[in-house]
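Section 3.1: Structural characterization of target chains.
Under the original work plan, the team committed to producing a structural model for every single-chain target entering the pipeline before any wet-lab resources were allocated. The record below documents one such target. The sequence was received from the expression subgroup and is listed exactly as submitted; it comprises 279 residues.
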Amino acid sequence: MSSPRPLALIAVIALAASILMGLSVHRVREERMGLTRDEGVTIESIGDLLRAAAWETRVALADLAFLEASVVFHRGLRSEDELDLEPTALHPWVPAHDHDLENTQEMMPWIWLTTALNPNHTRAYALGGFFLSWTLERPEQALEYLAEGSENNPEDGLIPYTMGRIRLSHLSDPETAVPHLRRAVECGIDDEEDLLAAVRYLAHALRLSGRWEEGLTLWEEQVRVHSDDPAYAHGAEIYRDLVMNEETRMLHLPSEISLSDLAGMEAMLCPFGDHDHEH
């Protein structure tokens, strides 16, 4: 049986290295950003210094955990003769491979560890919620996890976007999806494709909720905001045509048609395919 002293020594060395790494990162950020004490970056005590170092260390460890989650998730490489070595725009360095249920189950603990270490890691929250809902078939647990992320990151739009998608597409509940998707659009999303998708999903949820006029207003507003992006004008045009055709068709539908009946027509009514999540 090994002596506990070497293990304790290793733990002390690891802790010291972590603190030094945190201090270094904090100092580099301060110097590279050109901040001075007069501009708000002040460390007035050893306690403040250690807290700053501890936070930088947690952020660094969270990034490592998130990287490990990616490694685990992309573990399903096919045999060499089946590999498609054609580089892709998204991941030019990763050969073609499969994502199976087992990979996702092994990935999720690393995702949870990432957000436990860094509650501001919004991408980890969004990815975790997405795969909890669609791959592991746990939409309610996904929504709880995403609600935690949204509380920790109230200005973020990616997390409410994911919540809205789950409520709309997985739970077929457009009315409860609307506030999440609206918040996503209002907060904004860094990825332009995800932001456009959030507008599409919000308009779709409004239409399924019988609020077509709000959907039209939404598209008009977004076309003005994104006047340099023709994708928004194109989306607005398709939505207007869809609403006009839908109003015409409604004249020939039974008067007692329900919201669930309309939701069941989603594949036919929505001109946009499901926005595949990029990982």
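The chain has a mean pLDDT of 76.
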